Amino acid sequence: MWSAVTAYIARRFAQSIMILLGVTLLAFVLLHLIPGGSARGILGPRATAGQIAAFEQANDLNKSVFRQYVLYLDHLLHGNFGYSYKLNQTVSSVFAQDLPKSLALVGPPTVLALAIGALLGIWQSQRRDKLDDHLITGVGYVLYAMPDFWLAFILIDLFALRLFWLPPIAPSSPSWTAAFTDAKAMILPWATLTLVSIAVFSRYMRSSALDTLSRDHIRTAQAKGAQRGRILRKHVIRNASIPIITLIGLSIPGLLSGAILEEVVFNYPGIGLATYNAALVKDYPILLGTTLVFGALTIAGNLVADIAYAYADPRVRLA
């Protein structure tokens, strides 16, 4: 068993490394496709020929393309994502400051949406085609189709501008702990991401639970007189939760990328807002660094989901 698990993890890890190399190659190509050249694009249109030459010398842009890529990989392995001349600080320091705040933004909604969505999905599977099932399904489709920023504007207009219950913006403190010390200001951002994610988790859980309920071993347990609660606990919930594992691994990078709009709307100083501001001023090192980080998070999420899926379902690792 353990040899099969080890081989499966080794294969998935090797595939993830290859995909990650492909992401770094994409970022490297994008760096060289910057209009006017990477040096002028980063330094700005007013950079002199001497400044451009010094920049190319310092960043090994005067070497062959293959040598540049090898050195680029070496810099990435040492945590060097470049230098933002717009912010006058390294890209790594920007990530170290802003990425934890983005994780504090998307973490609690993910956990809450998973718990509520799983319960709703199980409930709907037991109430299939009933009025409450249709109501929850309809609300879920509306939330799933609604853009995150539009839902955020609705919540701000209702609870901040009309009822005056909650502040319209998130905490602006440079520390990630402000998301929890000033939790009242985080209710609207968290609620926005939670409502959108609940719709996804509940739909997947409902479909998975209905598929599990139609299997032979469930019908056998019902024929033997097993109580419905026991069938749900012992068979349905465990087997129906297996596909959700993949969804969780894939949802984390998606939430981080979707949080860009949330951070802009609520003026939350996370990595999303930093990326948005970098796009406005053409801060290419920040943009390329964000591409690499989000790509790595997506690959890591897939890898964790594959490993967890293999442990949950032996058929996967033996295939």
Name some characteristics of this structure.
77% helix; 2 domains; two-stranded antiparallel sheet; mainly alpha; 319 residues; single chain; MetI-like fold
What do you see in this structure?
It is a single chain. With 319 residues, the chain is mainly α. It has 2 domains: 2-91, no CATH class; 98-318, MetI-like (MetI-like fold, Orthogonal Bundle). Helices cover 77% and strands 1% of the residues. It has 15 helices and 2 strands. The chain has helices at residues 2-32, 38-43, 49-58, 65-77, 91-126, 131-145, 148-162, 178-181, 187-213, 216-223, 228-240, 242-265, 271-281, 284-312, 314-318; strands at residues 83-84, 89-90. The protein has a two-stranded antiparallel sheet. Helix 6 packs across helix 9 (187-213) and helix 9 crosses helix 11. The longest helix is centred in the middle third of the chain and has 36 residues, at 91-126. The model has no long low-confidence stretch (mean pLDDT 83).
List the helices and strands and how they pair.
Blueprint (H helix, E strand, L loop, with lengths): L1 H31 L5 H6 L5 H10 L6 H13 L5 E2 L4 E2 H36 L4 H15 L2 H15 L15 H4 L5 H27 L2 H8 L4 H13 L1 H24 L5 H11 L2 H29 L1 H5 L1
Antiparallel strand pairs: 1-2
Helix pairs in contact: 1-14, 5-9, 5-12, 5-14, 6-9, 7-9, 7-12, 9-11, 9-12, 12-13, 12-14, 13-14
The number of domains is 2
Sheet-strand content, in percent, reads under 5%
Rg, rounded, reads: 24 Å
Helix content: over 70%
CATH superfamily of the largest domain: MetI-like
Strand order in space, largest sheet: 1-2
**Low-pLDDT segments, ≥5 res:** none
* CATH hierarchy, class of the largest domain: Mainly Alpha
CATH topology name of the largest domain, in short, is MetI-like fold
Q: What structural category characterises the helix and strand content?
A: mainly alpha
Count helical runs: 15
CA(first)-CA(last) distance: 13 Å
